[in-house]
Structures are given as structure tokens and as C-alpha cells.
Amino acid sequence: xxxxxxxxxxxxxxxxxxxxxxxxxxxxxxxxxxxxxxxxxxxxxxxxxxxxxxxxxxxxxxxxxxxxxxxxxxxxxxxxxxxxxxxxxxxxxxxxxxxxxxxxxxxxxxxxxxxxxxxxxxxxxxxxxxxxxxxxxxxxxxxxxxxxxxxxxxxxxxxxxxxxxxxxxxxxxxxxxxxxxxxxxxxxxxxxxxxxxxxxxxxxxxxxxxxxxxxxxxxxxxxxxxxxxxxxxxxxxxxxxxxxxxxxxxxxxxxxxxxxxxxxxxxxxxxxxxxxxxxxxxxxxxxxxxxxxxxxxxxxxxxxxxxxxxxxxxxxxxxxxxxxxxxxxxxxxxxxxxxxxxxxxxxxxxxxxxxxxxxxxxxxxxxxxxxxxxxxxxxxxxxxxxxxxxxxxxxxxxxxxxxxxxxxxxxxxxxxxxxxxxxxxxxxxxxxxxxxxxxxxxxxxxxxxxxxxxxxxxxxxxxxxxxxxxxxxxxxxxxxxxxxxxxxxxxxxxxxxxxxxxxxxxxxxxxxxxxxxxxxxxxxxxxxxxxxxxxxxxxxxxxxxxxxxxxxxxxxxxxxxxxxxxxxxxxxxxxxxxxxxxxxxxxxxxxxxxxxxxxxxxxxxxxxxxxxxxxxxxxxxxxxxxxxxxxxxxxxxxxxxxxxxxxxxxxxxxxxxxxxxxxxxxxxxxxxxxxxxxxxxxxxxxxxxxxxxxxxxxxxxxxxxxxxxxxxxxxxxx
Length: 718
Prior knowledge:
Elements: E1 5-6, H1 9-12, H2 17-24, E2 40-47, H3 59-75, H4 77-80, E3 88-90, E4 96-98, E5 112-113, E6 116-117, E7 122-130, H5 137-152, E8 161-164, H6 199-211, H7 229-242, H8 254-263, H9 273-286, H10 299-311, H11 319-324, H12 326-333, H13 347-363, H14 380-393, H15 407-414, H16 423-435, E9 439-441, E10 447-449, H17 463-476, H18 486-493, E11 505-507, H19 514-522, E12 527-531, H20 552-558, E13 562-567, H21 579-595, E14 603-607, H22 614-634, E15 640-645, H23 647-656, E16 662-664, E17 683-694, E18 697-704
Parallel strand pairs: 1-4, 2-7, 2-8, 3-7, 11-12, 12-13, 13-14, 14-15, 15-16, 16-17
Antiparallel strand pairs: 3-4, 5-6, 9-10, 11-18, 17-18
Helix pairs in contact: 6-7, 6-9, 7-9, 8-12, 14-16, 21-22, 22-23
């Protein structure tokens, strides 16, 4: 990548005449030959001193300031070796200037970092900004480009570390650049570009780490100017300490909630400055503008708090609700939930979320229910809130409401929930329809059908409502009635749906013998999933003996069944997934499929057998499937690849990597990847129940979708 580094001559014209020639010349090698920057880079700023030439408004200001740095350093030859001490300087306009360049600099202070000299082992890069300045995006982009250049193109390559000047040295330098002066930040070319960080969040992070460093149990948060779980949990521990809880823990549990209730003091009346700091910090972390003096509760803070109440569907103007909801608001602020519509969020979804908070938290007061996010996304927490609201409306006592799809909830939905619906229960059923929208109309190609938002708030049995329910039932392969029966409720609420419903598919680790094949057929099964291989040797204590046996595919077909092949080498944790493993296992799956005479065109399901989060999918799961795809392509694409996993895993790998079919782990109903996500458009099988089919023979009960993956029904000739 090309980079422009402006020569010393550009700023040397502003140096006093006697030194101007030296300033414009190429930097001379240091008198200290100890120089190898394989440690990385130190980040600096200009500190609190007065800027020569003004406030960096123009490039001329920047050049004059660099010249003043040179003159100061040249005057202290003993410390700075007779030249400007920094290797490079970057201005707010995004221009990079040569200082010492690729020769050894002297700006990093004496000392060592893990045995490397601070000056001998690191470049120094100074950002032209004072202590009260914020970095511009061009400055950060220039830092990123320069660090990439130093790592990959410089005559003396830089190592991977990015450190603040204050690392191991008593200085406030690099000021507000500190939140970027670390590996993985936006100036690290090996990390994604994430733009500007938030100085107020950074201020809160530094304060909470300093203030509670010695508190029992306290875990410091990253100081990077970006809100994350680490930040809000550290603030939670600060709150606990101020409320007298010891040791502190990284969880806003019942003890913390009750302590906020007992204190019963809103921020405007709060005498404890540290609590005011925590509340302001939490508002900043949520993206609300409040007091820049975090210890003061001012008008900006008050406006922000009232807006939070409104955004969450609560009435700050109601004195009773204002006080009763305060502990819920504090808990909501100290989580990663959002109460404002976020990009990509749905406004109708947000309206339903706010209504859930208004009715079931503020008015009904369900003890187990927290404020649900109001961000426009149907997520795990929203699903839990919806379930609790339904439990209340079907008559479960408030003290017994827990958000689980247990026997009492199932009985209520099969009873009152399956009758004529009006009022709040009708609204909840239709909200569940909206949350599962769009559903898919049959094709080819399939086309999406969105739920009609006005149908949520009417008791009328509209044609659009009935049509959507029928389409959803057909897509989910449950009886098409257009009605709110138990099976439809279950399919809307949990990934298993009605786990007792009949299904034509199954999978297992047990060899299918002729007798077992006949048993499966008699039980109504028409397709069975089996594993192509096993990575453990028979001597391993965890060996399952799960792989297809020679001749077993023909035995399955002889019983009238079809076969779908699964490939899983462990696959139960993040470390099992890399691009190289995808390549290796794609090759292995192809060879085993050929060995068992599976014909061309068959889909092999590669398993993700744990609750992979989006961050896992991005970092490891997608690269693994990229490897699988590349391996199969390299062997002529004889076989297609499918994905086994949660709904979210299946949706993302299908859309982003190209999996042909999805085998959904629906029976793992508690997976975050199954809560708040619809069935994938390309689902072919849905595991809904695990049970013992016969003594010693466990079976997964799989709904096999009509007109989806046909499976193996014939083998290649021997």
C-alpha cells in the first residue's frame, strides 16, 4: 500500500537559519548503534505545552510546530542526540512527516520493555495534538497506514506492539491518544478499522479502573474509548462498592438490584459523587449526551435520564413509576442493551418492545422480568420478555413466571392460548408472528412474506393475518390451519416447536443394521443421518464408534430409508474451527463419501455443535467453511456442503459462505443462536427432540422438510 512521508525539508523552512540546513538534511545515524525496532511503536502527543503557530488550524501551523520541536530537541543534545527525537510526526490533517525516519530516535524515554530498550527497540510516532485535543479521523488513518508501512515495507521493520508513551513511564503522554495506543485498536492495521473512539467513555474507563483498583473482586476494563461488557461490568462493580457490597462481582444480580432499591435515590438527589459519576458514565456508554464533568449531575444529565425512561417505554413524569422503575433503569444502563432504535432495527419491533416494558414491567410488575431492549431487534432478551408476558396472560401466577417454555406454559397455550384470542393475549400472539417475520412463500424461488404491522393491534381476523399464519405454518411444516393452536404457538416461541409432533427424519451415532432399519421404517422415519467418519481411535476413552460402517449405506437403502451424511470432528468449541481444518476436513469428507459410494450432488452437513456467537462465526466458523468450500471445489465439487448448527449459524453460513442446506439444532432451544432467529430459508432438517428409541439406542428426532434435501437414495456402482 502506497504511503506518502513528507521530507524534513517541508518543516525545516521554519527552523531558525543557523540550524535550517541540518534540519532539512537526511537524518544522520544515531551515535548509539543499538537499534532494531522489532518491538513495535510508541505513540506520543504534544502534551499540554503551548503550540507554536496556533491550534493546528492550517498545515502551516503544523509545520511550525514540528520546527519548534526540532529546535527544542536540538538544544538538548545530551538527551536527544542533536536532532528531533521522534521518528515520525502526524498532523490532524493526516499528513505524515519525517523526523529521524528509519534511524534510531530518542523520544521514548530510557528503560526497557520486556528486555527491549524503549529507544533501541521501538519507533516513536508523535501526533500533533495537545492534551485537551481529540484525534481526527485523518490522523488515525495516517497512524494506521504508517504502522502498516513500518511493519511490512520499512528497511528496519517494526514489531507488532503498539504502546503509549506512558507504558512503564510516568507521563500522561499520549493523552487522548492513549485509547488508540494498543494492539487491536483502530490504528492497528491487523485489526478492522472502527473509526473514532469516544473520549467520554475513555474518561469513564480510566476513572473506574483508578478508583476501584484495590476493591475486592474488581476487574479492570479495557481503556479504549469503546463501550463493551468489560466497561459496564466494571462500572457495575463500582456501583456495588458504593452501595456497600463486598466483594464486588461482575454481575448485576438480585443483591445489586435490591441495594439500589434500598438506597431509593435518583441521581438528581444523589449526594455521593462517585455514584453520580457511575450514572453519567453509564449514560455516555449508552450514547446519551450528559455532563462532561462526570461527578456533576447537570441539566444535560437530567435530560438524558428522562429520555432513557421514554425510550424504554416508561413514564418519568409519573412520580411513582419514576421511583419504582429506577432500579430497572440502572440495571438496563449497566448492560449492553439499547433503548433507542439502532441501524437496521425495525420500528414496529421497537414499539412492541416498549409496550412489553410499559405493561409487564411498569404496570404488572412481573418480578422475574427485566426491561427488554428497545432497539428494534428480536433478540434472546426480547424473547424472554415476550414469554413472560404470555405466561402472565395465560394465568400463571406472577411469582411463578420464569420465561421458560415448561409444562405449565405448554398447558396454558394448549388451553386458553388455543381459543379465540382478544386483547393482550391476541396482541402477544401477533407480536410473535411479527417477530418471526418474514416467513417464506414456496417457490422456486422462495419469496419473503412480511407480517402486516397494523394486524398486531386489532382483534379482527384479517385476511393478511390469516395468510401470514398459513404461510408460516407451511414453511415450518406444521399443519396449515391459519389458527393460533398449540403447535403454532410453540413454533413461534421456541426452536424445537412442538417437540412431540411427528417427523420423518432422524440421526444417530448407532450403526443401522437391517433390523434397526426396519424398526425406523415402522416408526415412520424415512431418512436417517449418519456420520461419515470419526477422528478418535478405538483406544481413546471418548471413542463413540459413530462412523458409517462398510456396506451400511446399502443396508439403509434396503430398508426403504434414505441417508444424509454428517461430518463432525469434535466441533464443540471455537478452537475446532480454522481455515486449515476446513480444508483438511473437506478433503476427508469427500474421500469418505466416495469410499461409501455416495453419488455426486449429495450434500454433506458439517457440524458446529456448540452455541457459536457472532464473534465466533466471524473469527473462526466462516474461515472453516471457506476451507470446506475450497477443498470440495478443488476436488471438482462432486459434493455440496451443508451446515449443522443453531439457526444463526445456519443462516449466516448459508448466506455468507454458500451452504446448500441447513440441518438445524432446534432441540438446543436455550442456545443464543436459536433465540430470536427464524428458521433458515434453506432448512432441510430440524432436530427437535433427543430420546432413547430403543434400549441403548439414542435418536435425534428430525423434521424432514418436503422438497428440500432429497438425501441419498441410490449408490454408485461398485
